[in-house]
């Protein structure tokens, strides 16, 4: 993974989703062989429902899942979305709610390989939907179909 890919993400997503990805929210990036993981700390945490809506409103993002550990607590609700493979960037976005039911940290994973992104999405979808109560989950067949076009 190269720095230019990270810079392109920061520039593009800041314009499309400034509430989440404004420059002041960016914290760190860790580079790996085929991925880079960016961490954003939201200056103004947002409710999980608003986070899900924010992701769902983006034309180039596909909601993968929204799961909850228990309907009795606000902590630990998880949501994930990914860029539609027909678009230029290969990105996965994850958020998790804090004690107040708000998302205050967002993790973004950038991928070099469409295959790696597809495999990780499938594995994460299966893990999350088997462990938690599902509010929404894209079917595995629909995820795989996204990568066959």
List keywords for this structure.
5 helices, 149 residues, alpha+beta, 7 strands, single chain, 7-stranded antiparallel sheet, globular, 37% strand
What does this structure look like?
- The model has no long low-confidence stretch (mean pLDDT 93).
- The protein has helices at residues 3-16, 18-21, 48-56, 114-131, 140-146, and strands at residues 26-31, 35-47, 61-68, 78-83, 91-97, 102-111, 133-137.
- Helix content is 35%, strand content 37%.
- Strands 1-2-6-5-4-3-7 form a 7-stranded antiparallel sheet.
- A hairpin with a 4-residue loop joins strand 5 and strand 6 (102-111).
- It is an alpha+beta fold and 149 residues long.
Please indicate the percent range of residues in DSSP E strands (runs of 2 or more): 35-45%
Q: What sequence of helices (H) and strands (E) makes up the elements? A: HHEEHEEEEHEH
- Sheet/helix structural class: alpha+beta
Please tally the helical runs, counting DSSP H or I stretches of 4 or more residues.
5
Give a quick account of the main beta sheet: strands, pairing sense, barrel closure.
7 strands, antiparallel
Mean pLDDT: 93
| DSSP strand tally | 7
Parts with pLDDT < 50 across at least 5 consecutive residues: none
Rough outline: globular
Helix content: 25-40%
Distance between the termini: 25 Å
- Rg, alpha carbons: 15 Å
Q: For the largest beta sheet, what order do the strands appear in spatially? A: 1-2-6-5-4-3-7
Oligomer: single chain
């Amino acid at each position: 993974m190269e720095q230019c890919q990270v810079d392109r993400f920061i520039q593009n997503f800041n314009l499309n989703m400034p509430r989440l990805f404004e420059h002041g929210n960016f914290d760190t990036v860790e580079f790996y062989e085929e991925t880079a993981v960016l961490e954003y700390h939201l200056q103004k945490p947002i409710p999980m429902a608003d986070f899900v809506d924010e992701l769902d409103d983006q034309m180039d993002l596909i909601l993968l899942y929204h799961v909850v550990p228990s309907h009795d607590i606000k902590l630990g609700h998880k949501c994930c979305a990914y860029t539609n493979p027909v678009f230029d960037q290969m990105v996965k976005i994850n958020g998790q709610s804090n004690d107040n039911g708000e998302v205050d940290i967002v993790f973004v994973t950038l991928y070099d390989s469409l295959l790696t992104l597809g495999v990780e999405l499938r594995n994460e979808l299966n893990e999350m939907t088997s462990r938690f109560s599902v509010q929404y989950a894209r079917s595995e067949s629909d995820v795989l179909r996204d990568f066959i076009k």
